[in-house]
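Supplementary notes (optional reading)

For those who missed the lab, this is the record we used. Protein: Tryptophan--tRNA ligase. Length: 534 residues.
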Amino acid sequence: MTDDDTHDGGPNGTDTDDHATDLRADGAGVDAEGADDVALDPWGSSTVSDYEKLFTEFGIESFDDVIDEVPNPHYLMRRAIIFGHRDYRRVLDAMRNDEPFAALSGFMPTGDPHIGHKMVFDEIIWHQEQGGDAYALIADLEAHSARGLSWAEIDEHARDYLLSLLALGFDPEEGELYRQSENREVQDLAFELGIEANFSEFEGIYGFDGETDVSHMQSVVTQMADILYPQLEEPKPTVIPVGPDQDPHVRFARDLASRVGYFRVTEAYASFEVDDDERALLADAYDALDTDDDTVRCEDAATWLAAQDAKDVPDPAGVRDDLEAKLASAGKEPLRPRVRFLDRNASEEAFEALIESVEGEKRVYDEHVDAFDLDRDEAEDLARDVAVAHGGYGFLPPSSIYHRFMTGLTGGKMSSSIPASHISLLDDPEDGYDKVKAATTGGRTSAEEQREKGGRPDQCPVYELYAYLLASDDDAFAERVYEECRNGERLCGDCKEQAAELMREFLEDHQEKRDEVEGLLEETDLTLESPRNR
């Protein structure tokens, strides 16, 4: 979840004819050397060389699917720099309906904040401007355990991150800033979440082994608590803006959010419990047999499944035989759609309150309740309300949005540990100017060839500077730079000179604003010097 010096370079997209009209990039672009296409390691240094694979490999959804639903979309969204999401519609619904929602991201202070981190700052600030509760945290426990930084180093870098965040527009009076090490509520929540996590999961998700220290594992559970922290007072849609390397944290947090709930809500068709594959097959059987005339019974569904076997209908999940036996055993029990409340962690009082709260026809069993007059969304809301009213958690699964990585100025990855690859938000403006002037481009070998064949903006770190930062909210300007490059009208020397001047102006302005918000930072309740440093 945290953004640190592992935010590697990545593609800005393929050279497509429609790029000029919507500034969107969705292909391969330049691959960093040694890039791993699909491995997502929150602490590694691999890049993502094909963002399309993330949709199929990890279930990340394309942001194209929701862009038309976003009120006043940020330019990072309009230009497809934010390229994917998980369950973001939940947040958008709250945003449009003026209902509570939140945005949170964390920053591991391992070096200077650089222009790659600015994307996440901007995403948090934009959600705050749309009316969301904004949270920004310093992941100092993670920096100390996973990176081995001293507390003195963490304090220095944390201050720099916070000043840049405030200078870019974060409102600390309307939002919340905190350090992991100073937030007792987060630490207590991490302890509770840890009860639901086990080492085999750390091994499978993160590749931890017998050599992984316990504090590193503890920092992961703390990050899960960070992600769910905005919902401690009340359940609300929460988005976590991250690079795709942080997706393992998001998926794990969504799983833990469900596990600590009092109830699990599923769809069901009979009194016995089934898994997801069996449930899908039951739905097929019911749809095939349901008529207005006769009650569908479990034994009817068993006969229907046997007929599918006789017809050699494929059973890719391999569940038909087991389900057929369950249905045959249930005999004449009616097969009817319903929602099921499964008792996961509920107290006796909470379970009784749930039973009382379910209106309409219901069936009560020892460890679950079946409701016939509620739909799935209504049941989820009811389960959450009962849990919160009786001292339990009512976490909604956290949502996420994913941005592309910036390519380093020297090609390959952008990393705080490679000074020439990035521009720090603390760089002297003249140094920022010089770094842009020295940057790798997507240009041809000569001016003549450039004029004849056109440049390659999709393979150019300098064009990325325009798209991600220097064009700011001016899509027409970013489009013009792209088209002039691709058509051979814009030569690399002039393009870099313009970008370098804009970078110098940006750094001058940003650093002036940093000076202006020094007092604002001092007025916050944040501990700027950790007592652990003593």
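If you only remember one thing from this example: The first strand starts at residue 2 and ends at 3.
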